[in-house]
Design goal:
elongated, binds FE2/S2 (inorganic) cluster
């Protein structure tokens, strides 16, 4: 009898613990999505001249925590923070896309969503050109388009990916 009660008590505690872990994981996953991205600290960062920005790859600018690229004459400053859980998303030169090593989200050269658990494309910064230099403002973030939004550039992966394609 008491052994039966002990087992029931143990199972009840195990169940409660499991629910707690699940609630914690759900809260952690939701946190980045729910928090206001405009709250990022930072400000204007002088980078490079517009004609130094590549059109078929990206350049990493550590001071702005992101990348610069250009598409159809448009300068695009991209924040390197993954919109899933905040890992830094590296550029993969062999595939020509951004690939997050944490859970496998993949984005095009201009940060548009391709696959994975990220809820949207990579965020961008507002910018100005001041004295001939591109100056992204890292306190002014433009949220990426939701996952599932059609891409605006036709640049399929050009080679092998840098991450394991089965990564999730
Ligand atoms: S943090 Fe990038 S896919 Fe999860």
């Amino acid at each position: 009898m008491s052994e039966d009660l002990d087992r029931r008590g143990f199972l009840a505690r195990l169940w409660t613990w499991g629910l707690g872990v699940m609630a914690g994981a759900a809260a952690w996953t939701s946190w980045d999505f729910l928090q206001p991205i405009a709250g990022q600290s930072g400000g204007p960062v002088a980078t490079v001249a517009p004609d130094e920005i590549p059109t078929e790859t990206v350049i990493e600018i550590s001071a702005m925590r992101g990348y610069l690229t250009e598409s159809e004459g448009e300068i695009i400053p991209i924040w390197w923070k993954c919109p899933h859980l905040g890992c830094k998303v590296p550029w993969c030169e062999s595939s020509g896309q951004f690939e997050c090593p944490c859970h496998g989200s993949v984005f095009s050269r201009i940060g548009e969503y391709r696959r994975g658990p990220a809820p949207r494309g990579m965020d961008r910064y507002e910018f100005e050109i001041i004295d001939g230099v591109v100056v992204p403002d890292t306190s002014k973030v433009i949220r990426g388009a939701p996952a599932g939004t059609p891409e605006t550039i036709n640049e399929p992966p050009k080679g092998p990916e840098c991450i394991d394609p089965t990564l999730e």
